[in-house]
Predict the structure.
Amino acid sequence: MPTISQKGLLMPQSPIRKLVPYAEKAYQEGKVVYHLNIGQPDIKTPEVALDAVKVHSLDILAYTRSEGSDGYREKIAAYYNNHDIKVTKEDIIVTTGGSEALLFAFGSIMDTDDEIIIPEPFYANYNGFSTASGVNIVPVISKIEDNFALPPIEEFEKLITPKTKAILICNPGNPTGYLYSKEEIQKLAAIVKKHDLFLIADEVYREFAYDGVSHYSIMQEESIQEHAIMIDSVSKRYSMCGARIGCLVSKNKQIIATALKFAQARLSPPTLAQIASEAALQTPQSYFTDVIDEYVDRRNTLISELEKIEGVKVAKPKGAFYCIVELPVKNSDDFAQWLLENFDVNGETIMVAPAAGFYSTPGVGLNQIRIAYVLNKESLVKAVNILKEALKVYKD
Ligand SMILES: Cc1ncc(COP(=O)(O)O)c(C=O)c1O
């Protein structure tokens, strides 16, 4: 039989989706499963975006330009300028989700065996994007005790080798919920300048910054215009995960010219979804205020309920809608599977994401899970109660 590629064999399974068969079995048994495992918000998509695809006047659903339609890119540039990010449509390539923007960024700046430094825990699919691109992640550990703040900059510096091409951060962080401060971004800016590296910031949760703190983008650091690559998406901002629209933004013209070649190879981002995304930009500020209030309320409920459980440690998230929770278990993969297969409270159980998949250092994060607080408060309270009861009886 013809053989599968080494790369294909090495591609990691998503830690978020790998428990799905067990969840399906739980449904078949009639159990209710609270999904704390995946960042699919339950928030309504703005009507203005949905209406735009209902009433469009297209005769042919054609390709758009590979870099995205002019109209949409002009409007996102205006959105960024309103957020103190000085860019024009020439600095933007529209992609099929932030996921494709990450792949284009990796492809544009790294060759096989090049290295990228990433604070861990990190968004699990960075492992998959790295494998697909043939590059190596060099992790720098951030700690739950520090709320997952930026590790000391010397820790990054120690890891830089001739193969290092970039540092990648996620701000605010999935899975940590940590929001980097302006000072932390400036430390990163200084190090990438000093060592002539790229700085990629995945800012798909940029709108989700809590407690009155503003998000500070790497694109606001003028000193690193040639180094900075921002990744963005409409998926979470407008609860439009299914639109599959994101973008890559950089003032570095060579990056844009190179990413455009990758974009040309896949012809066009989705046309209808660009129409929806362009319309979504008219969403009133009140939508975001309401959404942020809702997430802050959920976060506060979740954290206070979790803190009541003995032996559980949790970092307080300042953005996005995730948190890492340390549990008194040895292996959260086994625990998560056991919850679906063997445990329920009155026919209800929970699905969580084991955190080891958010690390690339083997053996780290085994006693942690990631929780996405994308359910209403009532469900979150019930879900944490199930976790509490489960921990009372679970034996490693
Ligand atoms: C940190 C982060 N980056 C990128 C993505 C990719 O999002 P999308 O491809 O839907 O834009 C996600 C999705 O959950 C994410 O959490």
Summary: The CA atoms of residues 228 and 282 lie 27 Å apart. The radius of gyration is 21 Å.
